[in-house]
Amino acid sequence: MSLVSSATLLNRIAAACLLAAGCAAHAQGVAQASTLPSTPPPGTMTGAYGQSLQQQAAAEKTAQPAAKPAQADNKPAQDPVSRFLSQRGLLNAAEPSAPSRLLESVRDTASDLVLSAMNFLGVRYTRGGNSVENGFDCSGFTRHIFEMSVGLVLPRRADEQARLNSLLPIRKDELKPGDLVFFNTMRATFSHVGIYVGEGKFIHAPRTGSAVRVEDMRDSYWSKRFTGARRADLKAAADGEGALAR
Known about the structure:
- By secondary structure, the protein is of the alpha+beta class.
- It has helices spanning 3-34, 47-63, 80-87, 97-106, 111-118, 138-150, 158-162, 220-225, 234-245; strands spanning 130-131, 135-136, 168-170, 180-183, 192-198, 201-204, 213-216, 226-231.
- The chain has a domain at 80-245: Alpha-Beta Complex (endopeptidase fold (from Nostoc punctiforme)), CATH 3.90.1720.
- It is built from 9 helices and 8 strands.
- Helix 5 packs across helix 6 (138-150).
């Protein structure tokens, strides 16, 4: 065999080997490709920027603190006195200390009398009136409350109540819930009367066209017209009423 023929034969064998290797590599690539999804899952970010965003999101998710469990409402349930004052608008949430002070002042020996008086908030004013059905004027209101609550029968007129010998005159800075407070509203020293409820406020039947309500004695109108206060011995009156009942 000539040298030319031998070289040609070797070239053909090498070409055949290269062709076989190429076919095998192609077949392997096709097989691997068939095991991969044709498209990335929905929402998958591709590329370097997308991968960096995914990594950042995963890091932020890991860094987020666990959600705090809902805290139980630790507010104490309102007792009947608190609830009553709140419903009547006498506990002002904007002044955290004032409600507690008013509440404590109401809860003394005059609490029954004061709460009884507050129960008539909104009853209309009627000149000469002394009942829920007919309405109240100022002295009719105080007379009704004292008689109903502690059994103490007051005179009918405001000036007569102020001059009652069994009532003790007191200064403004000595006021306690249940005390009678008097004002000059008709150019007479004791022409108007109400019941002190604490924290500078009093409850009264003001005038025609109005109704029983709570007002602040520190307002300029009432402050200028205040003429005095009187205190009854409520405990003695209550004890006397109990003795009569027995």
